[in-house]
Design a protein that fits this description.
The chain has 177 residues and is of the alpha/beta class. 17% of the residues lie in helices and 26% in strands. It has a five-stranded mixed β-sheet with strand order 4-3-6-2-11, with helices on one face. Strands 8-7-10-9 form a four-stranded antiparallel β-sheet, with no helix packed on it.
Length: 177
């Protein structure tokens, strides 16, 4: 599948953190896998169809590869992700917290979070975006006006990324260093 980025430049004011189970579509400039490897899919000075046309031009999406919400299988005792595939990590590596009608969440690796912090700092410097984060994953009125780092779930209740397993406290602390 090809990327859907638009080769037109706009001043960026926000980084939007998100997650995806795969790289299908690649409608984002960056992805970070569980090992912390950062991949650039296109130059972030351009934009793609990511959230909404009125917002996409001024944001830089970063996608962490993550299985998202998990469903417990009562027969096997294991978890499956939203596609029905068995969760790739042991049961004890899922976070149990009720949020947006789900209870179990795949975790983000320490390497992912560290790479995300490094990439965010670099992008903030390059695009003159303030090194500050909303610091939570719930909806925020007028989030599109915010200058700094947000996550997709700040935009709409339909999004579950970033999930409760993302360590926002650690992220904010390290971002300030």
């Amino acid at each position: 599948m090809k990327s859907n980025f638009h080769k037109k430049e706009y001043k960026k004011r926000q980084i939007v953190l998100s997650h995806s189970i795969s790289l299908r579509g690649k409608n984002f400039p960056y992805s970070i896998d569980e090992s912390g490897k950062v991949t650039e899919h296109y130059d972030p000075k351009y934009y793609s169809d990511f959230i909404d046309p009125s917002i996409d031009r001024v944001i830089i999406p970063i996608v962490l590869i993550n299985e998202g919400w998990l469903h417990p299988d009562p027969i096997s005792g294991r978890f499956t992700n939203w596609t029905g595939k068995e969760y790739s990590k042991p049961d004890e590596n899922s976070l149990r917290q009720n949020w947006r009608t789900y209870r179990h969440w795949s975790t983000y690796s320490d390497e992912q979070i560290k790479s995300c912090i490094t990439l965010c700092k670099e992008l903030c410097d390059r695009f003159n975006i303030p090194k500050k984060s909303i610091g939570h994953n719930v909806i925020l009125d007028h989030v599109e006006r915010y200058k700094g780092i947000t996550c997709r779930s700040n935009y709409s209740q339909t999004y579950t990324d970033l999930s409760p397993s993302f360590d926002f406290h650690y992220f904010q602390k390290e971002l300030k260093k």
